[in-house]
Amino acid sequence: MVNAAPAVTVQNLVKRYGHLVAVNDVSLSIHEGEIFGIIGPNGAGKTTAVECISGLRAPDSGSISVYGLSPQKDRNKIREFVGVQLQESALPPRIKVGEAVRLFASFYPDPLDPDQLLESLGIKQIVNSSFKNLSGGQKQRVSVALALVGNPKLAILDELTTGLDPEARREIWSLIERMRDRGVTVILVTHFMDEAERLCDRLALINHGTVIELDTPEAIAAQAGGSRVRFVPSQPVNDETLRAIPGVNEIERKERYITVTGTGDLVGSLINVLAAIGVRVSDVEARTGNLEDAFIKLTKDDAFSVGKGVQT
Question: Is residue 56 located within the same domain as residue 20?
Fold first, then answer.
C-alpha cells in the first residue's frame, strides 16, 4: 500500500554537461511504497535524473532527499537499502552469474536468497554461465537480479525490460508488483507505455529536462482526448460528407479503410449520418486516447512551445 510519507523528494534539480542542460529545475516527490514511473523521449534527461537520485551523479544545483538522507553526503548509508539497475551495465566477462549475485548479496545486511531470486527471474539454469556468454536478454535479467538481491527499500530500474521477450517482460512485471506489495518503493524509467500503464501508480513525463506532466497514468492518458474510428464504407464517401459529421476533426484513408479522429460520440454520429445517406459501415474499430497518444501529443506540443520560445 502507498504511504503518504515521501520516500524521495527532489527540489529544483539541475544537471548540466557543458552547455547542455540535461535536467532543468525538476521537482517531484515519490511516496513510500509506490511504483513511480518516469517517461519521456530519448535524451529527455530521465536517466540523468535517476542517476542523481541514486548518488551516481552529483547535481549542479537543487536538493535530493532519499528517506531523509543525501545521495551525495550519505552515499554509503543509502547504498545499504537502494538497488539500482542501470540502462547499461557490465560485469567482468569471466565472472559466473551465481558468483556475481552472491557477491552482490554479501554487500547487504538482509539480502534475498540468490538462488530463489534467480529462479523467480527464470535464469536459475545459467547460474554457472560466464557473463560474456549470455544473451542480451539474459544479461538484462542478471542486471535486475543484482539490483534486487539486496532486498532494497528503494529500487531504481532504468529500462528493465528492454531486450526481453513478451513472456519474460510479464514475468518481470509480476516480480515488480510483488515487490510493491512488500512495501518496496520503485522508480521505473521506461519507454514502454503499456508497461507504465500496467505498473505505475504515478508518472512524471519529462521532456527537454523538465517535468511537463506529473499524474496518474489514467489522468495523463485522458489528455490525449478524442476517439479514433476505423471503418469500411459500403460505397465511396467524400471528405466533405465526413467533415460534416459532428465531432470529426481528421480523416485518413488507407486502401479500403477510412479512419476518422475526433471528439464526442464519434461512432454513433458516424453510423447515424452515413446510414441516413444509405452508406453502411463494416469492420468498425474504435478506441479512445491512451497513454501513448497522450505521450505523443504532449511531447509534440511541448516541442512546439519550446520552438516558439526560441523564435521569439
Answer: yes
**Cβ neighbours for 275, distance < 8 A, ≥ 6 positions apart:** none
203-259 pLDDT per residue, tens: 999 999 999 999 999 999 888 777 889 999 999 999 999 999 988 888 999 999 999
Please state whether 143 falls in left (phi above 0), alpha (psi between -120 and 50) or beta.
alpha
**Best CA proximity match to 109, nearest among 153, 160, 65, 57:** 153
Range of the domain at 269: 227-288
Strands 154-158 and 185-189 come out as parallel
**Statement to judge: residues 126 and 181 lie in one domain:** yes
Locate the DSSP E strands across the chain. Answer: 6-17, 20-31, 35-39, 61-66, 82-85, 154-158, 185-189, 202-207, 210-215, 227-233, 248-254, 257-262, 281-288
Other residues' Cβ atoms within 10 Å of the Cβ of residue 67: 18
* Cβ pair 173, 198 in contact under 8 A: yes
Set of cell numbers at residue 8: 524521495
CA distance 287 to 121: 34
- Name the nearest CA neighbour of 210 among 15, 7, 35, 8: 15
Nearest Cα residue to 306 out of 56, 5, 3, 21: 21
pLDDT of 229: 93
Looking at the fold, whether 155 and 255 belong to one and the same domain comes out as no
With respect to residue 307, please indicate whether it lies within any of the assigned structural domains: no
Query: Do 156 and 91 reside in the same domain of the chain?
Result: yes
Work out whether the CA dihedral 182, 187, 189, 193 comes out positive or negative. positive
The Cα angle at residue 256 between residues 253 and 262, in degrees rounded to 5 = 40
Do 71 and 182 sit in the same domain of this protein?
yes
Query: What SS3 state is found at 308?
Result: helix
What value, to the nearest 5°, has the Cα angle with vertex 222 and ends 220 and 227?
Answer: 140
Share of the chain above pLDDT 90, in %: 68
Torsion of CA 184, 189, 194, 197, to 10 degrees: 50
pLDDT-derived band at 68, boundaries 50, 70, 90: very high
